[in-house]
Description:
Elements: E1 5-9, E2 12-17, E3 27-35, E4 37-46, E5 49-57, E6 60-68, E7 71-79, E8 82-91, E9 94-102, E10 105-111, E11 117-125, E12 128-136, E13 139-147, E14 150-158, E15 161-169, E16 172-180, E17 183-191, E18 194-199, E19 205-213, E20 216-221, E21 227-235, E22 238-243, E23 253-261, E24 264-270, E25 278-284, E26 289-297, E27 300-305, E28 311-319, E29 322-327
Parallel strand pairs: 1-3, 2-4, 3-5, 4-6, 5-7, 6-8, 7-9, 8-10, 9-11, 10-12, 11-13, 12-14, 13-15, 14-16, 15-17, 16-18, 17-19, 18-20, 19-21, 20-22, 21-23, 22-24, 23-25, 24-26, 25-27, 26-28, 27-29
Amino acid sequence: MKTNIVSAVWAGAFVLTCGSTYAQNNTQTLSQSGASNLATITQTGNASSSTGIQTGSLNTLTVNQLGTQVATAARQTGNRNAITQDQIGEARSTAEATQLGDRNTLVQSQRLGPFNRVTGTQTGVDNVLSQIQSGNGNTGTAAQIGSRNASQQLQQGRENLVSVVQTGNDNEAIQTQASLGNTASLTTAGNDNRAHQSQSAIGNTAAGTQIGNANALTQTQNGEADRATATQVGSRNVATQQQLQGSAFGTNRATIEQDGDDNDAQQLQNGPFTVGNTAFIDQDGNSHTARQEQIGGRNAAQTYQGAEGQRSTVYQAGNDNVSLVKQNHP
Length: 330
């Protein structure tokens, strides 16, 4: 067994575990300044690297790596922060974690196949971030700025991409993807916002943006090549999009845009032959409500609502349906 290269400057506790006689050419660099910081590094495999920097007091860093050419990097500044990085069976995968503030928690876990990438950044107080990936070629990116924000990213499969940016306080985001080639992105700015994005099957795309306070967004896609986009600017808006089944050519589209306060929009598209379904809702002003549900094929529904206090409900089942609703829209 070749000797691991260890470079460490610390005030606190540090534990290095080589793992077993299979560890070769692994490198570890650790720098700790402050009081009562703890770092535990375990590496088993070949040509892997780990870098850790902790500044402050009572911070904890735990790294467990098994594989070939895997790399972790962690940096914490503040007090009582915790980072856990776990890579098992990965080849050429990387995990990067950065925390600035106090009492933040970040967990990164990658399993199975090669070329997974995960990056997490938290700035503030009492933020929680979990990033879990299994499969090949998946990429997860997360950034949280503020206090008491929570984000969870879970990906299984191949070549999936997920990203989230949360700025403000008390925001929550959950992103789940499975299968192949899915993309989910979420941007939140404000306080007390909730967002949930879930995608399975192949080639789906979901993009969500929330600016304001107390907004709620849910996007669920289970077909192929579905597209869902939701934008909420204001407060207390609710948007729900579900595209539950697509064909081999899955061409479902759903778009929601809401400006103002207390808007509510929901869209559901379903059916064994969903080619041609399209749903679009645009609500400007306050206190609008719109419902659209399409089951079958080649449906299209559009809703525009302006002024105040509008209500709209559209239901279509069958083939070749078209519906358009305008209410005092400029």
